[in-house]
């Protein structure tokens, strides 16, 4: 089988990581070979960059520097992990990818879309999700969930208005690309969200056979 690239996106605290692991187990129960990874991260260099990006002490990190760090981590991730896994015929499940950059640095930081597009092209070199699932959730609810799990990181400490722009950024991506990007209700229970995601993934995989 040709490899498939599936990404899970959404605002802080929407439950992405939980759903990625659940989807991995679901797909493996059907004998798919699954590679799970995340952004920023997924490689040694990417995890080091992640530590900088999420460090609350990095208060003076400029929007442009932030954008370039995400792009650098992604370029390494694509070359070292994602492309080889796809070429090996695996399903790659990624907790965030380039749509997060479009939402956070584009909608959230108001970076020029043309600059985002060029960086996406350089960092991914043609590797792009086949299916993206956005777990939508009111931002205040998501941030409250996240705060129950850990101390807020640098991005989680941004003002509520920033996170609102990010949420709208994800929804706008879904409106622009309804064939690739699907939205599920993150305010539902974890099992109900999982079921909605499984339904979308089943439909996607069936369309490839």
Features:
209 residues, 5-stranded parallel β-sheet, 13% strand, 8 helices, globular, 5 strands, single chain, alpha/beta
Word description of this protein:
The mean pLDDT is 96. α2 (44-54) runs antiparallel to α3 (63-87), α3 runs parallel beside α5 and α4 (98-108) crosses α7. With 209 residues, this protein is of the alpha/beta class. It has a five-stranded parallel sheet with strand order 2-3-1-4-5, sandwiched between helices. The protein contains eight helices and five strands; from the N terminus they run βαβααβααβααβα. It is globular, with a radius of gyration of 16 Å. It has helices spanning 16-28, 44-54, 63-87, 98-108, 113-124, 139-149, 160-176, 190-207, and strands at residues 4-10, 34-38, 91-95, 131-136, 181-185.
How are the SSEs placed, and which strands pair?
Elements: E1 4-10, H1 16-28, E2 34-38, H2 44-54, H3 63-87, E3 91-95, H4 98-108, H5 113-124, E4 131-136, H6 139-149, H7 160-176, E5 181-185, H8 190-207
Parallel strand pairs: 1-3, 1-4, 2-3, 4-5
Outline of the structure:
With 209 residues, the protein is of the alpha/beta class. The chain contains eight helices and five strands.
């Amino acid at each position: 089988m040709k490899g498939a690239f599936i990404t899970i996106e959404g605002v802080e605290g929407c439950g992405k990581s939980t759903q990625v692991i659940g989807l991995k187990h679901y797909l493996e129960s059907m004998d798919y070979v699954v590679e799970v990874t995340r952004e920023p991260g997924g490689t040694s260099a990417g995890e080091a960059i992640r530590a900088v990006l999420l460090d609350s002490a990095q208060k003076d990190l400029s929007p442009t520097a932030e954008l370039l760090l995400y792009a650098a981590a992604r370029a390494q991730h694509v070359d070292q992990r994602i492309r080889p896994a796809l070429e090996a015929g695996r399903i790659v499940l990624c907790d965030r990818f380039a749509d997060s950059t479009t939402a956070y640095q584009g909608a959230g930081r108001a970076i020029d879309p043309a600059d985002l597009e060029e960086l996406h092209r350089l960092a991914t070199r043609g590797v792009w999700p086949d299916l993206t699932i956005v777990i939508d959730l009111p931002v205040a609810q998501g941030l409250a969930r996240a705060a129950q799990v850990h101390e807020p990181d640098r991005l989680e400490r941004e003002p509520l208005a920033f996170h609102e722009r990010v949420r709208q950024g994800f929804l706008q991506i879904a409106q622009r690309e309804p064939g690739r990007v699907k939205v599920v209700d993150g305010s539902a229970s974890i099992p109900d969200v999982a079921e909605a995601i499984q339904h979308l993934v089943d439909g996607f995989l069936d369309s490839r056979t």
